[in-house]
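sorry for the late reply, my laptop died twice this morning and i had to redo everyting from scratch. anyway the thing you sent over, i finally got around to it. pasting the sequence first so we're on the same page, its 82 residues, then the predicted structure underneath. double check i copied it right bc i was rushing
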Amino acid sequence: MVEEERMKARPIEAIRRRYAQEWLLIAIDEMDEATTTPRRGRLLAHSKDREAIYDRLLRTRVRLPLVTYSDDSPPKGYAVAF
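ok and here's the structure:
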């Protein structure tokens, strides 16, 4: 797992493109209030191992954390629910 220090807020989609096929932990900085869609955030950590991201989430103290997979389709063996 790679932890990011002091990353500037970037569009969520730009972060997802940069870290293809990885799990991401993002601190949300800007949200579309009408749709509750995260717009911008700071990458806190990224990893191919989902459990590493959840372990890091337990140690984070951000108000609005987001755990997501970077690609539209999750890796084999995982499912997505909304």
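The helical segments are 12-18, 50-58.
thats about all i looked at so far, will dig more tmrw
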